[in-house]
Amino acid sequence: MGPWTLTFLAAALVAPVPPSGSETAVAARLRRDVGYLASPALKGRGNGYPELEQAAGRIAREWKALGLKAQIQRFPFIAKVVREQQEAVLLHGDEGRPLVWGRDLEALGFSGDADFRNKPLAFLGYGVQIPGGYDDLAGIELKGRVAVIARAVPDLDAFAHLPRGERSLLARLKRLETAQVAAVLVLEEGGLRPLQREEGPVKFDIPVLGLSPEALGAACGDLQARFKTIKATGKPASQDFIYAPWTALTLKLKLRREEAQVPNVVAVIPGRDPKLRKEYIVLGAHLDHLGLGERHSMGGAEARGQVHPGADDNASGSAMVVELARELKKARPRRSILLMHFGGEEEGLLGSSYWVQHPTHPLESVKFMLNFDMVGRLDPKAPKLMMGGLGAPKSAVEAAKRFAPEGFAISADVGASVGGSDHMSFSQAKIPTFFFFTGIHGEYHRPTDTADRINFEGMAKLAPFGRAVVLDLANADTLPAFDPETAKLPMKGDGGPMRIAFGTIPDYSDNPKGFRINGVSKGSTAEALGLQAGDILTKFGERPIKSIYDFMAALGAHKPGDKALIQWLRGEQTMQAEDTLRGRP
What we know:
By secondary structure, the protein is of the alpha/beta class. 24% of the residues lie in helices and 26% in strands.
């Protein structure tokens, strides 16, 4: 029995659970804090909204009232994308037809600018390319063409071996960009999407536009028949429309991106132990939500424009961190507690990723991170908390369950299955994490996620459990070490199996030089090559690497047993090595 387990068993001595009579006061404070954060006046705390700044100011004032020094770290965010110039004419044979922006077509937020005339269209089905198999791009001259592809990739037998990540639109767009197409038209069966920020790169080098199939009409033949043929035969139905009667596009587009500054709120409860106070236990939650539902709303088109209060997601976690801090300050832990409220989580863990890259306190001194995200919907009839460990040993997660109040079930797991939230940014930095979550529900990412649906009495019962776990970590002589096996994450994407086990821990933030990694797995190809955390991959075989999507495409183009020459940057030094790629076990 190691010191970590012994510490957990002894935690009741250092972290006594408050008497149940105090739960009423705790519930009242949580009700007040969640009620404010989820109020209509804060308009859903959207990233880039002034109301998110108001929420950050409220948190900072809470820290000041507790006698803590708070700081607000800000990071850049593309809040708005607008068209400054636009013209689009679809030519079919000798006839030209102007397309109406916002009705027939619309730029995607990461679109590049354009100014060209009469570029021929090429229908490319789904834009899928499987080495040695199905290939929408085969036999088509791509350079200078306007590619027409479907947004979604269906589940077909022909795509069974589509490499992981290759189903994503971003991966397919990157492939077409590399092929030097003039533009990409994405067929939007569900209706055009408004022009707004998109996840992925800030900007492609090529224009990317959503197009209504009705606007395209018969200019590329019978689209329904083409897709029906692909699904029935499992074979491409691509066609180049440079030949008579040709179909071409004239396009002029210039976009302007408006940047906002999004807040992270940081404060510290100083530790009492002279030897341990320079070590930190992070207690975090994301403060942002969806604003008026411009992006990521699950409520459909009718929900767009409505306030998405985000009471559970994540006013509940934000309020929980504040409540725990009130108790932790009284407890005077040995290690310091770093209190963090992140912005940008709903847009891809932007705030926590930024903090890890630009820490306000030494990153190497952060020894553990606990993340509270959606902790307000505990079932009163059968209270159950989902607790995960990413980068934390499974034994640590199991041991923490001992603090559960009577009648309080804990469902514990480790690895990527525990949920996507800000703890992932810390795990990728080789910091062990715990994640607390009371479960998904029908109001998730909808205007109906309101404060009146929160189980504040349940949150009040959860608070002592969180307090006990935090104090056990903060007061322990030794802490559980980072476990790379439980920190493994699948590559982003929605595709099938990736055949190569390269062994990198990715950094999902944009890097202008290439694809930055946060570490490598033991015994992997990446380790054999000599790659280290912080290295930036720039070339994989013959493929230049500018992003994680280029990297995924490069992996998908190889099979186990291939030799590949990898180039990377370490600081300002260019390095390279060759090794045989290994398959997944």
